[in-house]
Amino acid sequence: MTGPLADVRLVEVSAFIAAPSGGMTLAQLGADVIRIDPIGGNIDIARWPLAPDGTSLYWASLNKAKRSVCLALNTPQGQELARALICAPGEDAGTLLTNLPGSGWMDYDTLAKQRADLIMLRLIGSSDGTAAIDYTVNSATGFPLATGRGGEPVNHVLPAWDVAAGLYLATGFLAADRARRRTGRGQEITLALSDVALATVSSLGYLADVRVNGVVRPPMGNDLYGAFGRDFLLKDGRRIMLCAISNRQWRAIDKATGLTERLAMIGPLMDVDMGTEGGRFAARHAICAVLEPWFAARTLPEVRAAFEGSGVLWGSYQDFRQLVEEDPRASTANPIFAEVEQPGVGRLLANTVPLRFDLGQRPPMPAPRLGEHTEVVLTELLGLSSAQYGKLHDTGVVAGPGAQGRR
Amino acid sequence: MTGPLADVRLVEVSAFIAAPSGGMTLAQLGADVIRIDPIGGNIDIARWPLAPDGTSLYWASLNKAKRSVCLALNTPQGQELARALICAPGEDAGTLLTNLPGSGWMDYDTLAKQRADLIMLRLIGSSDGTAAIDYTVNSATGFPLATGRGGEPVNHVLPAWDVAAGLYLATGFLAADRARRRTGRGQEITLALSDVALATVSSLGYLADVRVNGVVRPPMGNDLYGAFGRDFLLKDGRRIMLCAISNRQWRAIDKATGLTERLAMIGPLMDVDMGTEGGRFAARHAICAVLEPWFAARTLPEVRAAFEGSGVLWGSYQDFRQLVEEDPRASTANPIFAEVEQPGVGRLLANTVPLRFDLGQRPPMPAPRLGEHTEVVLTELLGLSSAQYGKLHDTGVVAGPGAQGRR
After folding, report:
1. Chain B partners of A176 at a C-beta cutoff of 8 Å?
2. Of the candidates B65, B44, B67, B71, which has an alpha carbon nearest to the alpha carbon of residue B55?
3. What does the longest C-alpha to C-alpha distance in chain B come to?
4. A residues 2-21 lying closer than 8 A (beta carbon) to B
């Protein structure tokens, strides 16, 4: 095993997006991440989209590079085995990542009796103790009412708070692990999905704008706030996003479109200083009125040719198919991607973390089959003999691959 | 200083959102993060929104808990001082986080001559070497064409890729730091914003759905994919997001609305198994038709009362003002927030990381004034005398607070 976290081991008892993606990030960085599921799988095992044979592409995409262990977590014996795995010795082990209520058997205090320096990361929904998921947290943030053209809320489709929460869990583990190696002390770290969202809204200045200026940022379609940027429709029906967040980038648009003289008329026309981001933001409708016909007369290849090497800051809109079929950045031409054999699915493009480490890292890996590593992990970490494992298996306390439920 | 990273020190040379938020995350975890800017500030120093006196609320929100040093980075002496700060001794130091091209003077190889075990995190735009920001990366991901009701792309307003990139930078630093303490070796870590976005699209199963099933997820308004969830308009004009991602949550809606019998008719009506997520997703329009009048007849307080303690998974939509004025989770009732004195702005609600560490952490802190710590940092880390500092100041190589530019 390679990667900066090659000596780390942690146990994950999780479901859905946030906690599994946190564990996956650590696994992709080289850690041995053991995901423990109930026999048959947890609530996310058959989540859409599915492959033709019923294998969840959602689960397979969110649990790459992990090992999978299945235990009867609703029985005292299954819980005992899970606790033993979580608390197994090793100075780079002794960590549990979870977003599931453990019904007492995997509380921090219970586990700490077996391993005093345990690190436990616990993801919860809302900081007020109520249940919450990305959608019900997102509605509270203000973003849906500031997205689109107004009149009704627009949810973003990206589960952004889950994604951020997963990365906070990875960061939180590494911070607590660093402190543990200095002090010898473990701790419980709690992360509320609602706090992830509200801390982000605060960090981006939205709360301050309300507090200081009494201003609620209104929906502005695809316009960039505070500088120049918007989408444009091309002759061939494709669209592009065009931005300028510096004077240099603004002059590049001028030059690449050949519209310098006409764009220079906008300052006096709109009575703004076009040499500032704020001035260009205020004059954005006039700017777009001048640029629209230029884009409407050109195809995407023509725009690409005109902007190549020009310093213009732009990107084309792609749907998911165009991304897969046309963008080399989402192919094996990019080293963060590789073709892997995904059990139940076949050949699939898999990614590792986007971070590129000069000293090497773990290549993209498939997700395990559910229960694929039950026997090897119990043997390795708990020293079970083949006969002991067989007995647990025959009494239904553990399960290997092949016992996946379909919901 | 407190928090799990209280012994860590790193230098940041950055602008905009992603890299500064990565440094801020580490600072909020307790690290001494020294942001070095050119005299007068970097390109983000006056970014909107602004406070009445011109102070950027954007900058103040994204640079909390850091120390600020101003150097004439366009001069050999200023660059020399920056290199000395980056490479200053200490086993928990020797890290540079940047998203700016250093024009050679802060390349990894140049810096590694001064400190062989340097860790350098470098954020770039696109993996193909072109410039890119959140907007021009986002257009490529497929999400804008899957957001809203279709017909035109809808950009999400949240700079989600910048937020994720910041957290990857924090994670990447901690992973490389862990490896450095094991091996003694530093390294350069490169992160492309485009890779952050494309790795995420891949991790969420969108690429696999295209590859395996040939399916491009279409825009579906605010409907949840693969399970039941949508927004509803209430009698008082407010809106809520309602979801069920488990059978238990679905039955809770049944019970809390008293519509059990009528919702039970939908299975036969639409010929689906209403006991599955997929069945409820397929029948979502019929479900909404039954639920809409129930919500349209009730105000937000009435819905809140009906759902309290019911196990229904829901949240209300709030704009940024409602979030600030009505939601106690975005107030000092939540320990991740505190009132701080922000220079140039006054009393302000500031946040720390959403992670809550049982062993304690750094409280919410304001951002520094630009150049506030130039003298103390140069004195502390480089051992400059007061006279030496005075000379550098008088020759314009360094600047203390008060030299902030306005763009």
Report:
1. 4, 357
2. B44
3. 86
4. 3-5, 7-8, 16-17, 21
Is B151's pLDDT higher than 80? yes
Task: State which residue of chain B sits closest to A139, comparing Cα positions.
Answer: B317
Q: Which of B138, B318, B353 sits opposite A199 (nearest CB)?
A: B353
* B162 annotated active-site: yes
* pLDDT of A406 over the 80 cut: no
For residues A71-94, average pLDDT: 97
Name the closest residue on chain B to residue A30, using Cα atoms: B175
Interface A:B, Cβ pairs < 8 A: 493
Which of B192, B183, B177 has the alpha carbon at shortest distance from B18?
B192
Q: Say if residues A316 and B145 touch (Cβ distance below 8 Å).
A: no
In 3-state terms chain A splits into helix, strand, coil percentages (rounded to 5) of 40, 15, 45
The single-letter DSSP state of residue B178 is H
Q: What are phi and psi of A85, to 5 degrees?
A: -70, -45
Residue among B49, B176, B348 minimizing CB distance to A215: B49
pLDDT in tens, A202-231: 999 999 999 999 999 999 999 999 999 999
- DSSP state string for B57-125: HHHHHHSTT-EEEEE-TTSHHHHHHHHHHHT-S-TT--EEEE-S--TTTT-HHHHHHH-TT-EEEEEES
Mutate to test the interface with B, among A141, A157, A161, A357 (most CBs of B within 10 A): A157
- Complex-level ipTM: 0.98
A132: tokens are: 């919450």
Using CA atoms in the order A164, A170, A172, A177, what is the torsion angle rounded to 10 degrees? -170
Query: How far apart are the C-alpha atoms of A30 and A2, rounded to whole Å?
Result: 6
Contact residues, chain B, for A272 at CB < 8 Å:
none
Average pLDDT of the residues in A46-53: 95
Look at chain B and count its residues: 407
